[in-house]
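Hi U.,

Before I forget, here's the chain from the pilot set. I'm dumping it here mostly so it's searchable later in email.
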Amino acid sequence: MNKMKRSTAALTALVMIICTLASCGQSGNAGNNGEKKADGGYTIDNIRDCVIGLDEKMELGNGSKMAVTNFDNAATTPALQPVADEVNEELKKYGSIGRGTSPKSTHSTEVYNETKEKVIDFVGADHEKYTVFYVNNTTDGLNKLASAMIEDKSDLVLTTRIEHHSNDLPWRELGTVIYAEVDDQGRVIYDEIEKQLQNNKVKFVSVTAASNVTGYVTDVHRVAKLAHKYGAKIIVDGAQIVAHRKFSMLGEDGPDDDIDFFVFSAHKMYSPYGGGAVVGLTDDLMGHMPKFYGGGTIRIVGDDWVEYADPPKSYEAGSPNYPGIVGLGKAIDVLEEIGFDNIEAHEKALNRKLVDGLLKIDNSIVYGDTEETSIRSLWRSSWLMNTASPPDAEPSAPTRMCGDSTDCRTRR
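Structure:
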């Protein structure tokens, strides 16, 4: 029991550190409002000062108020102050995108287009081969891709057993889905992917870059090479990777292991304004169109005919979400300034400490690979604790960690 008390106390302290630090960083050159000072930029050590709402007191179940600890940044992340500031500043200069000649319209259109170029650079794509269209989030992007690219219910999509529903249901509704199994640690079995490709005429392989449950990182370039070997295209759900690792759509061995389509959300990277993007091969997007019509998707319309615009315009019906686009661009700037090498090193150390602490608690079950967390895993752990106990028993570990009034936020 004393061993468990010590482990739980250590883990409780670690929870408080992780849930504040892992969102960004802490202390140094940032001011109280998160603005960058002239004597330094955003770093892993000072960025915590820029996370909005960390100290905001919320009413709990017992009526008291206290700052809550976010234990689920895999679901969504809080906004960074520089992101919010950029959005608010740009809204002062907002005008219609691509539909006006006023100074505000011209300025907003330039920001809109420049951010697309920034996104292509962010994911290491080739400006000559790839284009970007904006979406509301990863789910929206995957649905639009499915709507455009799946032509018949017989179109076969290969995915895996560790995918988010958003990388399963759109393909299942419009096409036919088959699955590659994973091992008992939730890791992709690449031989299973190749076996499915050998035995079936697969049109698309759609896989996650990182699991939203265990944090396992898929070797998507290895999957790309397999997909292309058997004549399929690869789509990558990048929602969980973009805030944690530097990602490149271009492989090391040339086009064979390049990624064809990459989808991600800004709300996973400290810009919860409903922004996101799909980066895809321009030639492949040409000749297809999602079932969203009107707005900027057309060139000209007659009574009984219509000529649609080329990608990316044909994928962007209606007025765009300008705050989401601005926030996305600024979030990219901040993350790149912090440096993904620094983010990765920080997260690996935290993850190792978290897993080691959890493994010392007698009634905890840690899911996923607990041995190689520093190799192919993000800062993330999923665990279950047995909280069943007699009425007079000592409070359970989760209760001691999170409190009777649920002062930390976890996934239910």
